[in-house]
Amino acid sequence: MFLICVVLSIPVCAQETEETVTTRKTKNHFSLTFGAAAGNFAVEATNFNTVYSNRSISKIYFAGIGTNRFYLIAKYREFFATGHSFVDNIDVVGKSEWKQKFYGVGIRLRGDEQPLYADVLYLVTKAEESISTGEPVVERLTTMYETENKGVGFAVGIAVKIIGPIGIFIEGEYALMTKKGQNPQGRANPELGGFCASAGAHFAL
Q1: Dist CA 70 CA 109 (whole Å)
Q2: Residue 43 is part of which domain span?
Q3: 203: closest CA among 172, 168, 179?
Q4: Whole-model pTM?
Q5: How far apart are CA 81 and CA 100, in angstroms?
Q6: How many CB atoms lie within 10 A of CB 147?
Q7: Residue 129's pLDDT band (boundaries 50, 70, 90)?
Q8: Does the residue 7 lie in any domain?
């Protein structure tokens, strides 16, 4: 009787082992992901809200490679805004344009079969501001300069599959700038970090 039980248990153990290996492979399989989103970016630059009232929706693109639990990821985000610049004691209004781009690389972590994920990124952001005037033309209001910050980004999101590898996600990301440097005039660069809330679609194998 003992020998019969042992013989009968061997196929069962083998089956369980195969199922365990299959499950492990499923949880850690090679994965490729990419996607795009639109978001609302709130810049922390001093007086930004006073000058720039017309802001565009941020365009966001990302791609990653790794397993379905751990990705090496790259992100790109661009943001545009226009507004009016005023000069004290001068009856003139200047037109201001702001163009900002974020470049990020880092890691994305997510749990087994969980919709939640988290990103940690190294960020470089570059902004270009141009100011011009109409009538009357004021030379000292016609300028353009570029500035740069470096720092880290932290994001948390929820990604849900819809059809096969195609899904949708919502995400919140905060950019913390730790290195601002100086602009060509020798003044400290403005704080270019801030919070971005976004939603979009993604593809993940």
Answers
A1: 5
A2: 29-204
A3: 168
A4: 0.80
A5: 9
A6: 21
A7: confident
A8: no
Structural domain count, the chain:
1
Q: b/e map of 165-197 (b: 16 or more CB within 10 Å)?
A: eebebebebebebeebeeeeeeeebbbbbbebe
Q: What is the pLDDT of residue 22?
A: 44
C-alpha closest to that of 33 among 8, 81, 56, 65: 65
| b/e per residue 48-75 (b: at least 16 CB within 10 A) | beebbeebeebbbebbbebebbebebbb
- 82 domain residue, yes or no: yes
Length of the chain: 205
Is 95 within a domain?
A: yes
Q: Do 41 and 49 contact (CB within 8 A), yes or no?
A: no
| Burial class for 102, CB neighbours closer than 10 Å (0-12, 13-18, 19+) | buried
- What pLDDT, in 10s, does the model give residues 12-33? 444 545 444 444 445 677 889 9
What CATH number is associated with residue 81?
2.40.160.20
Q: How far apart are CA 13 and CA 6, in angstroms?
A: 10
**By C-alpha distance, which of 121, 75, 128, 72 is closest to 100?**
128
| Interatomic CA distance for residues 149 and 192, integer angstroms | 7
- Per-residue pLDDT reduced to its tens digit, 53-112: 899 999 999 999 998 789 999 999 999 999 887 665 566 667 889 999 999 999 999 877
Q: Answer positive or negative: Cα dihedral of 172, 178, 179, 182.
A: positive
